[in-house]
Design goal:
single chain; 811 residues; alpha+beta; Chondroitinase Ac, Chain A, domain 3; five-stranded mixed sheet; five-stranded antiparallel sheet; 30 helices; 50% helix
Amino acid sequence: MKRPLLIVWASLIGLFAWLMSDALFRSGMFVFRDAAHYYYPLFELIRDQWAAGRVPLWNPYENLGMPLAADPTAGVFYPGKLIFALPLSYAWTYKLYILAHLVLAAVAAYRLARHWRASVEAAGVCALSYAFSGNVLYNYCNVIYLVGAAWLPIAMLAADRMLVGEPNGKRLRWAVAFGMGLAMMVLGGDPQMAYNAGLLAAMYAAWLWWTGRKQVDRQETHDRRLLGRLAAARPTMLALAAGTGLLLSAVQVLPSVEFTSQSSRAASDKSQRWLGRFEEGTHEEHIYHFSVGPWRLAEYVWPNVGGRQFPTHRRWLEVIPAEGRIWTPSLYMGVLPLLLALAAMRLRRGDARIRWLSWSVVLAVVASFGWFGLGWLLQEFRIAAGADPASTGPVGPPFGGLYWLMTIVLPGYDCFRYPAKLLVVAALGLSVLAARGFDDMFDSPSRRFHRVLLGLTIVSVVGAIVALAIRPFASDWLAGVEPDMLFGPLDPVGAVNDLLGSFLQTAVVCGLFWWLCRKMHDTSPRAWPAVLAVVLVAVDLGVANRWMVVCAPSSYWTEPSAVARKLQDADRPYRVYRHPLWTRPSWKVEGSPDRPAEAMQWDHATLWPKYNLAQRIAVTEVYGAMMPHSYAEFLRERRIEHPPRSTDGRPASFSHDALGKYVILPADKTLRGGQRIEVDLPDVSLWCNPTHWPRAWVADQPNTRCRVVQEEPSRIEVEVALPQPGLVVLCDQFYPGWQLTVATDGGPSRAVEIERTNQTMRGVDLPAGHHRLTYRYRPESLFIGSLISGLAWLVLAGWCVRLIVAARTAA
C-alpha cells in the first residue's frame, strides 16, 4: 500500500513541479492574459489597502471610480487572501496564491475519488486528470475560476455525504460543510461555480429520489419528532446548505447584487432573449462569448490537435469561420483518463451515482457549446441552401441550445457569461469516472477496451502519416487563416507539426497502455502495471500541457511604466484617457517566440488594462467584469455624438478624452488642440489635454474654482467659495452608498443629498458661501452583509468547537 501511494504522490508532485518550474524555481511570473494584467495589479491594490489599515471598499482609479468590495473578481473578503499577509514579496505571495489553489484542486479531487472507494492508483489518476487538465490548469490565467475549480471537489464530497453518505444527525454537519464550500467559491470570486455546484447537488438529490435510493429521512432524536424527521430530509438539507452558503458569503453577495443591478448586465434588453437574438456589444451577446465549438471535442483525444495558440500562431482550426474566441487553448485531460471515463459511463442502467456523474458530464459538455445551438444549425442549413450569410433567420444562433435554456429558465443565470467555464464541471465528472474505470479495468480486464486502445493507436498512426503527407501543401491550404492581432500570421509548418505531434503522442500513449493491459494477465491486479499507468498519465499530461504555462521575469512588473515616468512630476490628482483595445500593428504581420512577454511589457508601459493600479493613476475607461450602466451609456453616447477626427480627417475611435488631463493614443492619431509629450514607446502618442474637464467645478460659473483638498479611496474633500447659489459637480461616479456632508462658512457639517449630474456624476445645489464638501463611501449593502456574515461565521466557529469538545469527551 505504501509503495503505490508514494509513487502516486511522487507523480502528482513531479508533474506540478514540471508544469510550474518557471514560477517555482526561477523568477518567473505568470505573464499571459488576466493573470498578468488583471489580477496581479488588482490583488496588489487590495493588499496595499488592507496593509494601510483601510477596508478596500472603493477603487478610485477606474471609470471615475468603481466599487471594489462589491466586485466579485476582487474577492476582498475571501479567507484565502490571508496568504498576502505573509512576510514575503508580493510577487511570491501572488504566485503562492495561484499555486496553492492548483494543489488544492489536485488534493480535493484525490480525496473525492477515495471517498467513492477508488484505489490509491485510481484516485491518483483522478487528481492528475482533473487538476492538470487544460480546463483547470489554464485557469491559472484567470485566478478566480481556479479558485472555483479548487473548491468544487470539496463541495461535491460534502454534497454526497449530505445526501447519501452519512446517516442520521451527521448529515446536518455535511450540509453545513457543503454550504461552506459554496461560500468559499462566492467569496473567492466564482459565484457561477457555486451556482453550478448547487445545481449538481439538487440534480443528485432528485436522481436519488427517482431511482428509489432513499436514506433515513429523520434526525436521530430521543422522541423522533416530526421536526427531526423533516430536518434530515434531502430538500431540507439542500435548503440548509444554500442558506449556510448565503449567510457566510452575504458580505460579498449583497454588495455584488447591488453592483449587478447598477450594471449593464441587469439593464440590457431581454425582450428578444428567448429567441436567441440581441444587439451586438450588449451583455446579452457577451453571455455567449467563449462558446466551445463541437469540433473541439477532438482535443480530448489528441492533444493540441488544432494547433497551439501561442507563443507563435499555430492554431489552424481558425480556418473554421465559426471558431471564434477560445477560453482555454486545449481541452486535453489525458487520453487514458478519457477512455477510462467513457468506459465507466452509464446513462441508463447501473449505480445511481455513476449515472448522475455521467449525465452531469454530458449536460456540461453540451451546455458549453453555448452559441452553437439549434439556431446556429438552422443558420448553417440556410447558408448551405443558398441564403445570404449576412441575413438573419427567425431565431438567433444560441436558440435551442442547453446554455440558452439555462439562461431562460434558471433565475439569475443570465447574469453570468462564458459557456466554456462549464467544462470544469465536465472535467471533474470525467476524472471521477476515470477512477472508477481504472479500478474496473485492473480488477477485471476488458477485451473490448483492449480493442479500443489498439484501434485508437492505429487511427492515430494513420493520422500521423496523413499529417506528414500534407505538410508540403500546408501553406497553400491554410492561406485563408487570418493573422492574429497579437500572435501574428499563422505558422503553417508549425501548425502541421502540432497536428503530427498530437497523433503521435496519442498513438504512443495508447500503445503503451495496451501493452500494460496485456501484462495484467500475467500479474496481480494491483501490481506494477497499475502504478506505471499512473506515471504514464502524468508524463502524458506534462508533455501535452506544459506549453500553456507561460512566465516572464518578475522584474517586468516592478519596472516603472514608460507613461508613468513621463507623468511622475505632474500635479495630482489627474486622470488619463487610454484608447482601448489596440495593439502594435507590427504584431499582426510578424510573430515572435517572446510575444506574451512583449505584450505584457507594452501593456504595462501604456497602462492597459489594470496596470494603472500599480502606479495609482486614474484611467477613465477600463473594461472589466462590470461597469455601471449609466457610465457605459455616457461613454457610448459621447462616442456617437462627439466623434473627434484624426490627422487625415477620418473619425477617430476615441471620443471622451475630455475626461482625461492626459491622453494615450495610437501613434497615427492626434488630439485636436492637445500638446504632444514625447514618449519612448513604439506605436504610441501621449498628449496633454488643455480642455479636459476639471475634477470638480460649478455649473454655469466658469470663474468659480473648486479645489480637492484631501483624497482617499473612500473619502474626498472639496472646497468651494460660491459668490452665488450654484450646482457643484464632482467628476466622480454616482453610485449608491456615497454620502455627503457640507460645512458652510466654518459652521457644523450637515448631511446633504447627492444628485445624479451629467448622467453619471455627483452634484449638489449649494447656496452662496464658502463650503467644505466631504464625500464618504458607506455602502449599506456591505454593512448589512458584514453583520450577517460575521454572525454566521461566529456561530459556525462556536458550533465546530462544540463538536470537537463533544468528540473528545466521548473518546
